[in-house]
Every structure is written in structure tokens, then in C-alpha cells.
Amino acid sequence: MPPSLRPPGRRLASLREPGDVFTGPADLPPPAGPIDPARLPAYIPLMTSALHRLLGVGCLALLLTACAASDGAGFSSGALEPENVLTIGAGASEPVAAAYAPAAVSAEAVKPVAAPADYVVATPTVQADPADGQNSYRLRPRDFVRILVINQPDTQIERRINSDGTVDIPFLKKLVPVAGLTLTQAQVELANQFRQFFKKPQVAISIVSYAERRVYVSGYVGKPGPVSIPPEETLTLGRALAMAGGVLPRGNRSEVTIKRNRPGAPMVITKDVRRIDDGDEPDFVLEDEDQIYVRDSRI
Q: How far apart are CA 241 and CA 36, in angstroms?
């Protein structure tokens, strides 16, 4: 007999479990000949039960396969954590969004490092060029810098420039003068110093934090006290007086004095702010630690 005409009772009977109780077509005697179309509805419940069993076996096989694959992948519940979320504590139930904060230089890291006694002061190979212009930032004492020879990680250091304008390089065991140089000039200077150890060294230097620069304004102004010089900018006399609250009506605008420290003896400069305001002469560029005094116009 062809398979398509085989009685369903014999083919599906093997799917029945022992003890199953079913009163329906399976209990009917299998037909001896071709299936009567009129009796097909009686076999539908048995066929549906068999299909359910087959589907259950297939789903179980798929589940076991997925579990075996996940064991090899090292799946953990942490994979379900959303990105950029910090969970506080091992048993915390509510995630806390991790706030981004730029890395801060610790107080210990920015302390000046005393160079060992066996360090020598390197002979400068680059001289500061005053023609570079006032807009080119020049390294200053107390600037905190990062120095690295590219592809030589053991040369990377972070140092504060010493008060004498040098920076100590442990790899070289030298104090290299860099104050007064632009970043480009400092790169050339350091590359020349590293040349005794590397062939054509390429030096990268960057400023981690700027040295605080300020001038001091006193006398007949609105807000006497220190005025900070912005990093990589210049500060003029007119701007400093404006930041100090301006000259009071009683202040003498025609004779504003600037005291500037110089080796040996301080320098005293007198400026007429009225001429600067009228555009008759350029504004005066201040330097770090300048002291500005506006005296009483009645004296």
C-alpha cells in the first residue's frame, strides 16, 4: 500500500505514551482500505496532538543548542547593562549615570621636582626669536608641560618648568632651558638634546596647565587687587584698568605708573591713559607681576 494511503492509526500510534487515555479515532479499528473522506474529521484531534509533541521536541532541541553556544561566549548579565551607566555597589538596583569629568592634575603631580645633583645644565641650541610676534605663546616658569620622544615611551615625562626657566629631563640627566621659547622652538631644542641617543628624534611637547600670570592694580580704581592675564593672550594697560573697575573720577589718568621688576633695579614706566583712550598712542602691553598704580589727581 502506498504511504500516502497508509491508515493514520498505525503511523500515529507510536507517538502515544503509555497510559494515555484518549477516546477518539485512535481507538477505532484501522480501516482495511483507503480512508473514507467522510471519516477524516474524526482523525483531526489525534493529528493535532502529534504535531504539538513534534513542535515541543524541536523547541527543546533549539533551546539546548542555544545554551551550549552561550557557555562558550562567556555571556554575563553585565552585557545587559546600558553603556555609560555606573552601578554603585554590588547589590545596587538603580543605575547611576556616570558623569564625564576631565582628568585633573593632582597637587602632588604639579609640585616642582628637584633635579638630582648629577644633572648638568644643557647648552642652549635655539635662541628665542623676538620677531615671532606677540601672539605666539612662550613657555614660562611654572608652566606644567608633557614631553615625549615619539615612539619612545620611556622618554615621556610631565614636569613643571623651574623658576630659572629650565626643565629637568631624567632620560638626559640634564636641565634644558625652555622658558621664553615657543612650543615649536622648544621642540627643536629638545630634539637637539635627544639627538645623542636617537637618530632624528621627533619630540612632542604640550602644555598640561599654564602658570598663573597676574598684574596688580592699586590706587584710585573701582576694584583694586590682582588681575589675571589669560593664557596665551596679552593684557594691556587699558584692559587691566577696565577689569579693575576703571579709574575713579578722582584718579589721575594722565600719570598712571607701572612698576616692573628687572634684575638689579625695578623699572618705573609712566603712561597717559587719556592718549591711549583717544587713540593717539598704542595701548601698553603688561608683563607678569607688573604693578599698576593710579594716584590721586588732587595731589
A: 111
